[in-house]
Amino acid sequence: MSVEILDASTIQNFLNDSEFFNKSVEERFSAIDSNHDGLLSYAEMATELKKLRVFETHFGVDEEKQSDDELARIYTELFSRFDHDGNGSVDLEEYKSEIRDLMLAIANGLGFLPLQMVLEEGSFLKLAVERELVA
Fold it and tell me: Of 9, 29, 53, 64, whose CB has the highest number of CB atoms within 10 Å?
């Protein structure tokens, strides 16, 4: 993790750099696709979400754990957001589209005043900051 400064333009520039954004999303998609079939299953997506530990903890504090049923409900809802056609799997285009929408929502929430955030290494937000630093 690292502390970085970013604003909406950091994210928007990341999204507008199609080559960099597509490469970043494709690499993450491939890393999650453990059986390499070109599709993400619910199990593959849930495994990735569990690694992030966002829902298993309350802002990173293990004392406020969600129940297993509540976690399953949250994961199912998130998976259905990515599975646009409802066929039970997420292809690269669905994944890319949803990541773009999520990043735009974050950018809209941030606004144009710089904000200091703790970012996970390899996260899309961290990649956006790194892209901005070399651009």
Answer: 29
The helix (H) or strand (E) run that includes residue 133 is: helix 124-134
Task: Give the tens place of pLDDT for each residue, 24-67.
Answer: 999 999 999 999 999 999 999 998 887 766 555 555 555 566 77
Provide DSSP, 11-66.
HHHHHH-HHHHHHHHHHHHHHH-TT-SSEE-HHHHHHHHHHHTTTTSBTTBTTSPP
What angle (nearest 5°) sits at the alpha carbon of residue 13, between those of residues 7 and 16? 145
Distance (Å, whole) CA 6 – CA 126: 9
Triad 64, 66, 70: Cα angle to 5°: 160
pTM score over 0.90: no
Query: Percent helix, strand and coil across the chain, each rounded to 5?
Result: 60, 10, 30
Q: Helices 18-32 & 42-52, crossing angle to 10 degrees?
A: 100
